[in-house]
Design goal:
Elements (H helix, E strand, L loop, with lengths): L2 E7 L3 H16 L5 E8 L3 H11 L3 E3 L2 H6 L5 E4 L6 H10 L3 E4 L7 H14 L3 E3 L7 H11 L6 E9 L22 H16 L3 E9 L4 E4 L2 E4 L5 E8 L4 E7 L8 E8 L2 E6 L5 E6 L10 E4 L7 H4 L9 H16 L9 H20 L3 E2 L2
Parallel strand pairs: 1-2, 1-4, 2-3, 4-5, 5-6, 7-12
Antiparallel strand pairs: 7-13, 8-11, 8-17, 9-10, 11-12, 13-14, 14-15, 15-16
Helix pairs in contact: 1-9, 4-5, 5-10, 7-10
Bound molecules: nicotinamide-adenine-dinucleotide (NAD).
């Protein structure tokens, strides 16, 4: 049986998710090659060895270039801070590796464009960590829209809120540095945009607003000015006349992983929230008015690929399962099969949209996405 060798760069929040995905993908999807966890990279050599042992990787290094040069590594997982994605992804593609890079692509549009160009030139597969498009619920929503269940889409609203930076005393981190990008736009808005571009298409024009709730945060013994915006909003115009909004905040107390989508069509509506991502609410304006209302559809084996994880309906999937599905789609694409994934070209559409939102926010007027 074919095997595929993977290398993992970064072992933080997303690094562990990629490690778990690589560990589980063949057990869940038996049509994939057996995954060999070849090499893990972390900046400190002792911790790299420890993480490699914990995550089941054969070897470790503190030098990401060594990982990319390793002939046993066929696919590189990049889970480092945003500012490092471009150099790592481009080097990996130039070395002939396939790439699974965390979102966003890069803080600058120029670097994102260079990443997409490198992927095209390499002929290798390069996809981004837009896990939320992978859930059975979002796939089901896609099916409803494709099958015209709610009629022609008229408008949509997406919100992404968490509170991990809601405390003014939360420490300064790479996420507060301008080198990571605009802030909530690159960190969060890209996720709603992954759903919008997957389900409804790409926005034409945007009007943006960004704000910085706290001017500084604790850093070492003192305080350091925050360089990014933790809150952002945008109005969107689609080419078919539909309109939408996005609102995102990293400072929304009480919201833990809220990614809410409301889509309205000429005949009905759909509501989804990632905090309850095993269910979808659907409203269709038909039948007796007194019996009309939103219907809650609980995910189960009928909603692919739920059945791959567990045979029992309603027993619920979790976030890390989305990463397993994403790894499966990456392997599908490597094997030349149809796959649902946001590759670097599709990711560029998302990047162009957030840069247009930022431009609009600066200039105080509508901006074309281009
Ligand atoms: N898809 C999602 O839902 C999702 C969620 C959270 C974060 N992310 C993305 O994942 C990326 C990482 O975020 P995180 O929350 O895991 O951050 P993190 O700070 O928890 O982890 C970053 C890791 O990168 C490592 N690293 C930094 N420089 C390195 C270098 N030169 N060589 C090797 N390793 C290096 C760090 O040591 C750390 O292990 C970001 O781009 C972020 O936007 C995606």
């Amino acid at each position: 049986m074919r095997t595929v060798g993977v290398g993992l760069i970064g072992t933080g929040y997303m690094g562990k998710c990629h490690a778990l995905a690589w560990t589980g993908v063949h057990a869940v999807f038996d049509d994939t090659p057996i995954v060999r966890r070849v090499l893990l990279c972390y900046v400190e050599v002792g911790l790299a060895r420890r993480r490699a042992d914990e995550f089941g990787f054969e070897a470790s290094t503190d030098d990401w270039r060594e990982l990319i040069a390793d002939p046993g590594v066929e696919v590189v997982s990049i889970t480092t801070p945003n500012a490092l994605h471009a150099q790592m992804a481009i080097a990996a593609l130039e070395a002939g590796k396939h790439v699974w890079c965390e979102k966003p692509m890069a803080p600058s549009l120029e670097d994102s464009e260079r990443m997409a160009a490198a992927a095209r030139a390499s002929g290798r597969i390069a996809i981004l960590g837009y896990n939320y498009i992978q859930s059975p619920a979002v796939r089901y929503i896609g099916k409803l829209i494709k099958n015209d269940a709610i009629g022609r889409l008229t408008h949509f609203r997406l919100e992404m809120d968490e509170d991990y930076m809601a405390d003014a005393e939360a420490p300064f981190s790479w996420r507060s540095q301008a080198s990571s990008g605009y802030g909530a736009l690159d960190d969060f808005a890209v996720h709603p945009l992954s759903l919008i571009t997957t389900l409804f298409g790409a926005p034409n024009e945007v009007f943006g607003e960004m704000s910085r709730p706290y001017p500084d945060r604790p850093d070492g013994g003192g305080r350091r000015p925050v360089e990014t915006c933790d809150v952002a909003s945008a109005l969107l115009r689609m080419s078919d006349g539909a309109s939408g909004t996005i609102q995102v905040s990293r400072c929304a107390w009480g919201r833990k992983g809220r990614l809410q989508l409301q889509a309205f069509g000429a005949r009905g509506g759909i509501v989804f929230d990632q905090e309850r991502f095993n269910e979808v609410e659907v409203y269709v304006a038909e039948g007796q008015p007194e019996a009309q209302g939103f219907r809650r559809v609980l995910m189960g084996p009928a909603h692919h690929p739920y059945e791959r994880f567990i045979v029992a309906p309603g027993h619920q999937m979790g976030f890390n399962d989305l990463k397993i599905i994403e790894a499966h789609e990456l392997l599908n694409r490597i094997l030349g099969r149809p796959a649902l994934a946001i590759d670097f070209d599709a990711g560029l559409v998302i990047e162009r949209t957030i840069h247009a939102i930022a431009r609009s926010s600066r200039e105080g007027r509508w901006a074309a996405v281009g």
